[in-house]
Known about the structure:
Elements lengths: L2 H29 L22 H23 L5 H23 L4 H29 L2
Helix pairs in contact: 1-2, 1-4, 2-3, 3-4
Amino acid sequence: MKINTAIKIAAVVLLLFNGIGALYGGLHLLLHPDGSSLGISKDWLKHSPFDSFFLPALVLILVNGVFNFFTLWQLVFNKPGSGLFVLAQGALLSGWILIQVVMLQMVYFLHYTLGGVGFALMLSGYLLWKRQKASRHSF
């Protein structure tokens, strides 16, 4: 298997993991903004500007759900610049996790997991982008 194919497969798996999790969690929090359907206490929001999970859920769905699946589509169908989209999704996920940790003032095991996914997406996106760029300039 070529290294480019392995990187692409890894990115697809990571994007699926992130996207499915974001839609699952986001939809639960959108429908139950008190966090009850996921067993999350509204006390988690005491250091944030939010009094419910509704707005964070909406952002989660759009940024790590919808944009994530758009990125997946770009990658699967070999669209130009798909590597940059993967890199951007990794940065958005990492930023999301960082902001979450700051606002919650706590670290949960999923922060480590998703932080690692974000880093891996940034790395794989960068590598894919470099290879895409190189293949465009080769004759």
